[in-house]
Amino acid sequence: MAGRTIAIGDIHGCATALRTLLAALELTAEDTVVTLGDAIDRGPDSREVIEHLMALGEECQLVPILGNHEQMLLDAIHGRIALQDWLMHGGAETLDSYGHGAALMEIPIPHVDFVRSWGDYHETDTHFFAHGNYLPHKKLSSQPWEEMRWRSLKQFFPGPHVSGKIAVLGHTANKRGEVVNEGHLVCIDTYCNGGRWLTALEPETGNVWQTNEESELKQFELEDSA
Ligand SMILES: [Mn+2]
What we know:
This protein is an alpha/beta fold. Helix content is 27%, strand content 19%.
């Protein structure tokens, strides 16, 4: 049996919700899991999230996409931004997960190398997966991903992509914890770190799993947008 492709939205350090979600998904070695970025920052345990994702790569085909928060971590490490710029955007919580008041240097090198290996996007025959946004008329291989991983759907709501593929995105948090389905675009950042949900979506079937930091689980099918 061919494996499933399942996208997971912005985790933001919510290790309990991630643990609950991974248990519910019952993944096999044939499954592909696409994490949409912003796995770290803001929430309580980014270190544990990174460890879960590293282990997940041994269990299934893991395709991690780089979010703007991972970009900030890497930029801080390389001196491209001031450390403070990352810390005030949720990086402080990430460092604390490595020990209260831990320094940037205390993040283990394998963790940094793992994050550095994350990509800009992923595509299947029917869908593509990215962190924040996209330009509808530009092919996926030449998108300005450095910029697109920052751009909110509130700033710019793109039309259908020229490829005809459906976009699966994170980054723009839905504060009610709801999946936004516009037909040509689905956004599954459902504000886990704000007390709402962590979402996994199997785009081919519309199966949705949602978990939270209270270890609750909901499962339902995505409705077609009217
Ligand atoms: Mn983001």
